[in-house]
Design brief:
A: Enolase-like, domain 1; 4-stranded antiparallel sheet; B: 166 residues; Ubiquitin-like (UB roll); DNA polymerase, domain 1; 13% strand; binds flavin-adenine dinucleotide
Chain lengths: 272, 166
């Protein structure tokens, strides 16, 4: 398999990048690790005229902590998230999710930002970051805006980006946070993902992803858990009816419902 | 962008064929005649095309040749010395970790990267690192054994102050 022809541009500043991405005259795409974009191009599902390689844009490789806030630049790879001391100290579950997804080669090349912008319902980090109410900073011709990870996509593979560049992912990690992350993988990407978080300030925050749907918080389950008296079975019962998984190569709707229920049970059992 | 790309492949300065859309695997196989990296799934799944760029593993089937500009690429041909196998290659033979051989270059390359990053890996670390390299013959147990042999030999050699062929 070969790639269709394209022009490769390498902006060095955010302004140059935005000018290239926002140029309506030409069909362009942000190119970071390329682990999804080149795949689509190989399969004939995308053929942008211009790839805008933003890995060299100043500032996008940054990763920093200030108090409870963690910020990860758009060009930071999964391997770098896995290895970063800051992440391992403040939010170790994110480091272990980054270190377990895909394979070592995709983790070396693929970025956290690219993962989120691709809006794949089978994303591990999107599930965990949705649970913790993380947000992303996007920059375009009209300036910078902040969007919750939960609102970054209208639907599967359909991010709300409007000629914009994702600059960084921001998350606030509260004191006393406990996290359980569960996934099940049959082929390459996870079929179902569950993140359960608890801390004294927010109570329970529970997100489910995969099963044909983008990750989202499941308020009904959170409410049940926040009563403080719920059994695992009550939480699992509250999840039923909240998911509308589609049948695909990973299995039937019923099978995915069952997986979600089992993973939720495992996650809650670990931190309750 | 038709300028040849200045890059280092297996320790030698060379130019890969230019063109933005050229994939690294094609530049290596067709441009330089390095046939070690194999085309199999062509989707970053199987690991047969694994090469190192600056000692980190990449799927050369899903990497633009341009990404290697000014960097150091290592294919399986770059391990060992002329006429002498690397310790990883030798251990693969000893452990019977090769059958049809198609996945072997990717595995050997990945194992070099693994031991570079984790000089004393336990079995779980080895399994996690190699989980993205697929073999349809061996059942994987001989590969794990081969990695553990190299690990143990390198640790013993380091203790004795001896050099191993890598
Ligand atoms: C074999 C395989 C297995 C995988 N398994 C998993 C898994 O288990 N779990 C999981 O979560 N993921 C998995 N993935 C997905 C992987 O995490 C993503 O491929 C990777 O993170 C994408 O990052 P990238 O830098 O390569 O993005 P690219 O391919 O470069 O870009 C992806 C998309 O996002 C856009 N984009 C990228 N960066 C930006 C930005 N900064 N601003 C605006 N738009 C941008 C691009 O234009 C493109 O549309 C897997 C992928 C593969 C190939």
């Amino acid at each position: 398999m070969y790639l269709p022809d394209f022009e490769l541009r390498r902006p060095r500043t955010v302004e140059e990048a935005v000018a290239l991405i926002g140029d309506d005259a030409r069909d362009s795409a942000v190119y970071m690790g390329g682990t999804e974009l080149l795949l689509l191009m190989k399969l004939g599902l995308a053929a942008p005229e211009v790839l805008v390689d933003c890995k060299g844009v100043a500032g996008l490789k940054g990763l920093g902590v200030s108090g409870p806030r963690l910020s990860i630049g758009a060009a930071v790879t999964h391997a770098a998230v896995e290895a970063a001391e800051e992440v391992n100290d403040l939010f170790p579950e994110l480091a272990s999710v980054a270190g377990a997804l895909a394979n070592v080669r995709v983790r070396t090349a693929g970025t956290l930002g690219g993962n989120l912008c691709f809006a794949d319902p089978h994303s591990d980090p999107a599930t965990l970051l949705t649970a913790i109410d993380a947000s992303v900073r996007l920059v375009g011709r009209h300036g910078v805006r902040t969007v919750a990870v939960a609102d970054l996509a209208r639907g599967p593979y359909d991010a709300v980006l409007d000629g914009e560049l994702l600059l960084a992912v921001d998350a606030e990690v509260p004191d006393g946070l406990r996290v359980a992350y569960e996934r099940i993988v049959l082929r390459e990407r996870p079929v179902v993902t569950v993140a359960a978080l608890h801390d004294p300030q927010h109570g329970w925050r529970i997100a489910v992803g995969g099963a044909g749907q983008l990750a989202r918080r499941i308020g009904e389950v959170e409410d049940v858990m926040n009563t403080g008296t719920a059994e695992l079975g009550d939480a699992q019962a509250a999840l039923r009816g909240q998911l509308r998984p589609a049948e695909d190569l990973d299995g039937s709707e019923e099978y995915k419902q069952q997986l979600a229920s089992v993973l939720l049970g495992r996650a809650l059992a670990r931190i309750r | 962008m038709d300028d040849p790309i200045g890059t280092t492949v297996n320790g030698e300065r060379c130019s890969l064929p230019g063109g933005a859309s050229v994939l690294l695997i094609d530049a290596l196989r067709e441009g330089l005649g390095l046939l070690g990296p194999k085309k199999s799934c062509e989707l970053s799944v199987c690991g047969s095309c694994t090469v190192l760029i600056d000692n980190e593993p990449y799927s050369s089937c899903m990497t633009l040749a341009q990404e290697a500009t000014g960097r150091e690429v290592t294919t399986v041909e770059g391990f060992g010395r002329r006429g002498e196998l690397s310790d990883v290659q030798q251990a693969f033979i000893e452990a019977g970790a090769i059958q049809c051989g198609f996945c072997t270059p990717g595995f050997v390359t990945a194992v070099h990267a693994l031991l570079d990053r984790h000089p004393n890996p336990d079995r779980a670390t080895i399994q996690r690192y190699l989980a993205g390299n697929i073999c349809r013959c061996t059942g994987y147990a001989p590969m794990l054994e081969a990695v553990e042999r190299v690990r143990d030999r390198r640790l013993a050699a380091a203790e004795a102050g001896l050099e191993q062929v890598r």
